Amino acid sequence: MTEFKCGNCTGNISHQGCSRHADKLNTYDWMADLPDNAEACNIVEVQFKPPRKGYYINANNLPLEKGDIVAVEASPGHDIGTVTMTGRLVPLQVKKANLKPGTELKKIYRKARQADLDKFEEAKKREHETMIESRQIALHLGLQMKIGDVEYQGDGNKAIFYYIADQRVDFRELIKVLADRFHVRIEMKQIGARQEAGRIGGIGPCGRELCCATWMTNFTSVSTAAARFQDLSLNPQKLAGQCAKLKCCMNYEVDQYMESLKRLPSREITLHTQDSEYFFFKADILAHRITYSTDKKILVGEQTISAHRAFEVIQMNRNGQKPASLTEESNAPEPVSRDILSQDNINRFDSANKKRKKKKAKKPNGNGTPNPQKQL
Fold it and tell me: Which range marks the domain in which residue 107 is found?
């Protein structure tokens, strides 16, 4: 336990819940400092090459902590991974992973020895070269597929080839050629474009690391309806992410926008006043303000009103009444918008410096005459 102070308060934070690796799907174990936490569950979460994780039984009751490198059971041989969670939170992670009840879990053999680590590092160095060469082999065989990543097992006896294909691919001949070339057991796994982007990683237009490369596991479908609900421009170049698919983040706020849309009048309703009629042009959904125009196609005679005022005018029109104007009749001044980014303007000090120089130039000396300006 490490004690820290923040302002006028004190508290404790456990270093055991943190990991030395900031890999994908990293989870802070906030129960790590509880008494007998490691003995509460004999299932351990182990992470391999991100984002692959697995759950194993600590049958030998090894004293494992987050960050330990272990050798686990594999088929065939053994694999090398890093312990990412132990104790009471593991059953919750197993439930989140949607493992079927009664699934037989494999065992943890031991903590990795130096010989295991040396063999594991040697296998990892071969992954990139294997991927490049396997792509050339697939191209030579005329297969419509792309091998996006290769992962070697910890003992170097097996390799997993992750590939992308739009259609079904018969890779039986490819497996024979790869096994003969690399002398390992071959396993092929098909992934989608979103999973490939998550394995490669990158920075999104928001300036942060891609969600699929940090925490996302389930990739739900994204439709253009989410963009329409949020009044986003239907420009494919702006809506598409680095995977060339619609951005997953479009689904984050669509529920809130749909709730806010229920508080706005229909876009098909026309508002009538004594001098004109107004058509819907655009809406600020979260602020509940609507802009109307006297023309259906272009912005003419712009009038921006609140949703509450729009419902009042609609009710008056249904009763056979027409207000004198679309805006509310009040003497309250219109709110003036302010530039909240003006404080970050690099020229914001220029005007103040000029005023100071003028004041210094007009300041009189002891004889009552202005000070002469120095020639720079």
Answer: 2-112
Distance CA 357, CA 334 (A): 37
Which long-range contacts does 102-106 make (Cβ < 8 Å, 24+ apart)? 105/43, 105/55, 105/56, 105/57, 106/54, 106/56, 106/57, 106/72, 106/73, 106/74
Give pLDDT < 70 ranges for the chain: 1-23, 329-346, 348-376
Number of structural domains found in the chain: 4
CA atoms within 13 A on the CB side of 156: 15
What pLDDT is attached to residue 7?
Answer: 37
| Same domain, residue pair 156 and 245 | no
Separation CA 127–CA 302 (nearest Å): 61
Question: Same structural domain for residues 276 and 254?
Answer: no
Query: Do 173 and 99 have their domain in common?
Result: no
Q: Looking at residue 365, what is its pLDDT?
A: 55
Task: Give the separation between CA 24 and CA 84, rounded to whole angstroms.
Answer: 11
- 54 part of a folded domain: yes
255 and 277 inside one domain: no
Q: What is the pLDDT of residue 339?
A: 60
Contact 370, 363 (CB under 8 A): yes
Burial letters 225-253, b for 16+ CB under 10 A, else e: ebbebbeeeeeeeebebbbebbbbebeee
* pLDDT for res 246: 92
User: Is 13 in the same domain as 104?
Assistant: yes
Q: Which residues contact 310 (CB under 8 A, 6 or more apart)?
A: 264, 265, 271, 290
CATH number at residue 138: 3.30.300.20
Q: How many CB atoms lie within 10 A of CB 212?
A: 26
Tokens of 304: 């921006």
Give yes or no for a cis peptide into 35 (omega within 30° of 0): no
Residue 353 lies in a domain: no
